[in-house]
Amino acid sequence: xxxxxxxxxxxxxxxxxxxxxxxxxxxxxxxxxxxxxxxxxxxxxxxxxxxxxxxxxxxxxxxxxxxxxxxxxxxxxxxxxxxxxxxxxxxxxxxxxxxxxxxxxxxxxxxxxxxxxxxxxxxxxxxxxxxxxxxxxxxxxxxxxxxxxxxxxxxxxxxxxxxxxxx
Length: 167
Description:
The chain is mostly helical.
């Protein structure tokens, strides 16, 4: 069984230790890694999974979980199921993408870290936050269909008697 499968089993399947306890242990460790990355402005991390685990006092499974979390930001994502303790990973971090992903995942404990002050101005962070939030908003630019207008499906019926009847 891979490290990632072990992590998923621990993190989402309660056996022995509760799921909340697993996350209560992992989240501060993850935050410590991000504090290091942002504080030192590390854009490239080249190391083995076991080195990440050792450096930040976590298990190999937790280190793979960190790589899984940051995977969406990487130019070349990893297949986390294939990562082992001796796998060499090269993490190229783009801070604007990272900030947006943290906002998307609603990880306020991460996107509100004080270390962001050294990377982006407050105005830039607000702009990135707003850009990410607006990217998920659906805007219907088409004309509004009235109840008594012909149905856009082309049936010839009024909208209220055709497609609008199911609403």
